[in-house]
Write a structure and sequence with these properties.
Elements: H1 3-13, H2 19-47, H3 53-101, H4 118-148, H5 152-168
Helix pairs in contact: 2-3, 4-5
């Protein structure tokens, strides 16, 4: 695997604009919910006034800490997996938008079957196809004008316009 392919693969795995915030946000939300439930459980146990609570308290804290750590790691990997299914398509769509800005209308977003954002990618591909269709119509019209033009100066201007269209857009 070449260096460029490795860099591209790494970028697809960790889309910097989206994945870190998604992973930390989901992990923080789950951790906050768990901490609230653990503390409310401790308060309920202490409120009952049982004499057994001081004996169980250190074991309960250690057990909850280990459980929170394990759950935090599971949430991290699940969030990373889910965000990867969205980060890859976002990266591909970003590349397509960059190419559209350069006038490349011959590109499409191709996503894996199980990636998220399939509907958005399909709508984006339809939009690019619509632009390509409209530009082909304009190009045909320019060609028709060039054929019907009588004046050589007008023909030269239309040819210049046709050449500029070919330079600006690839389709």
């Amino acid at each position: 695997m070449s260096t460029e392919q490795q860099i591209r693969r790494q970028r697809l795995f960790w889309y910097q604009g989206f994945q870190p915030s998604f992973v930390w946000g989901l992990g923080g939300a789950v951790l906050a919910g768990l901490m609230a439930s653990v503390f409310s459980l401790l308060i309920l146990i202490m409120a009952q006034g049982r004499p057994v609570v001081p004996d169980i308290f250190p074991v309960l804290i250690i057990f909850n800490f280990i459980g929170l750590l394990a759950l935090g790691m599971i949430v991290y990997w699940v969030a990373l997996f889910i965000s990867h299914r969205m980060g890859g398509p976002l990266y591909r769509m970003t590349l397509l938008f960059e190419q559209l800005g350069q006038g490349r209308l011959d590109q499409q977003v191709n996503l894996r079957r199980d990636d998220q954002l399939q509907d958005i990618a399909q709508a984006l591909n339809q939009g690019v196809g619509g632009l390509r269709y409209r530009l082909v119509r304009v190009r045909r019209r320019v060609a028709n004008l060039c054929e019907t033009a009588q004046d050589t100066e007008t023909k030269a201007e239309i040819q210049s316009l046709r050449q500029e269209l070919d330079e600006l857009f690839v389709f």
